């Protein structure tokens, strides 16, 4: 009986060691494949998020602000959950900057995390769009995370369907935020939210170890994929 138990334990250990060895073999790109799928899904959802925001009169972005902005960050279906006194939110999104010639670069991927305190109960999904006055602020994510509302001011952007490209609407804040929420929360707070660079997604999508924003912009053809073309077309359309 002891011999059978010993043999069984040895067999289990062999199977476990074989599985661990196989997982460590080079060329296992299962995580890369998953990240690429996440990236493409995020791009497609970002187009939908932009449509959702622009179709709602309460969150509509004046085209003149899109034209003036040098950077844009989109978080589609950012999720916020709260129970009792502790809450938080998280999201995966994309960031784009505009060249001096007016064309948008390839996107790179970013994350949003936040903690909050207060009496609250419920859940929501929110489409978030952040317009940046200066693209250097986005490209600075290569070096350090940005604490929104602390390192950089975030203000609710003016929304008006009567605004047009010729309307005198200017940036009075470093970042303007536009949100369209679905759920029990009426709004969203960015104070203390941390905007960070998503290394894993960028490295998997672009197949590069060095995925700093200037490398993505300068060394890759733009736009990178058909999905990116659709996204840039949507941004340009709403900025007309």
Comma- or semicolon-separated keywords:
240 residues, alpha+beta, 6-stranded mixed sheet, 7 helices, 6 strands, disordered N terminus
What can you see in these coordinates?
With 240 residues, the chain is of the alpha+beta class. The protein has one domain (29-238). The chain is 37% helix and 29% strand. It contains 7 helices and 6 strands. Strands 1, 2, 3, 4, 5 and 6 form a 6-stranded mixed beta sheet that branches. Helix 2 packs across helix 5 and helix 2 packs parallel to helix 7. The model is unreliable at 2-28, 81-87, 116-121 and 162-167 (pLDDT under 50).
Topology:
Elements (H helix, E strand, L loop, with lengths): L1 H23 L5 H26 L7 H6 L2 E27 L10 E25 L2 H5 L6 E2 L6 E3 L18 E9 L10 E4 L1 H8 L6 H7 L6 H13 L2
Parallel strand pairs: 4-5
Antiparallel strand pairs: 1-2, 2-5, 2-6, 3-6
Helix pairs in contact: 2-5, 2-7
């Amino acid at each position: 009986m002891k011999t059978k138990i010993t043999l069984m334990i040895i067999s289990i250990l062999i199977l476990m060691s074989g599985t661990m060895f196989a997982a460590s073999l080079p060329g296992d790109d299962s995580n890369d494949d998953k990240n690429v799928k996440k990236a493409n899904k995020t791009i497609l959802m970002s187009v939908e998020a932009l449509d959702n925001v622009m179709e709602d009169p309460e969150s509509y972005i004046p085209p003149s602000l899109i034209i003036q902005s040098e950077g844009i960050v989109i978080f589609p279906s950012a999720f916020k959950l709260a129970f009792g006194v502790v809450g938080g939110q998280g999201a995966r999104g994309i960031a784009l900057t505009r060249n001096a010639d007016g064309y948008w670069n390839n996107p790179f991927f970013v994350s949003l995390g936040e903690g909050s305190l207060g009496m609250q109960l419920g859940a929501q999904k929110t489409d978030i769009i952040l317009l940046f006055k200066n693209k250097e602020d986005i490209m600075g994510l290569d070096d350090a995370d940005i604490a929104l509302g602390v390192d950089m001011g975030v203000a609710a952007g003016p929304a008006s369907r009567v605004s047009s490209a010729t309307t005198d609407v200017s940036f009075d804040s470093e970042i303007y935020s536009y949100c369209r929420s679905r759920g029990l929360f009426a709004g969203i707070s960015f104070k203390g939210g941390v905007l960070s660079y998503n290394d894993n997604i960028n490295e998997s999508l672009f197949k590069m170890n060095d995925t700093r924003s200037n490398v993505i912009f300068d060394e890759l053809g733009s736009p990178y994929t058909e999905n990116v073309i659709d996204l840039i077309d949507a941004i340009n359309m709403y900025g007309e």
